[in-house]
Amino acid sequence: MTLIDSHRWLAKPGSVGTAVLGTVRICDETGRELPAGQVGTVYFERSDMEFEYLGDPEKTAAARHPRWPHCATVGDLGYVDTAGDLFLTDRKAFMIIPGGVDVYPQEAENALALHPASSTSR
């Protein structure tokens, strides 16, 4: 769980705040924790409360971090800055991997919307 107030959001637009329950970890596809500023899978760690999908043990197992048993993800992608603010960038389910290259549909949509020939850019 993260929390942000309006003053902090104005100073850091797009942030969803800092962790107030547990720890936020950003990890690459192998489970390695990434440094501040790098986009990866968002995991939340809480040793006092296990994350579980109701009636779906396979989905629960897939959401767990490969090395940290108390870390789980709901499929968000994002990064933390050096102050610990979390910024969400996409959902893992929206990512397409053609030929081993990560393609985020939102990035493609943004590029198309900003193209001079786009009706939304006028």
TrEMBL record:
Keywords annotated in UniProt: Ligase
GO molecular function ontology, one term from the record: CoA-ligase activity
PANTHER family in the cross-refs: BLR3536 PROTEIN (PTHR24096:SF323), LONG-CHAIN-FATTY-ACID--COA LIGASE (PTHR24096)
Record protein name field: Acyl-CoA synthetase (AMP-forming)/AMP-acid ligase II
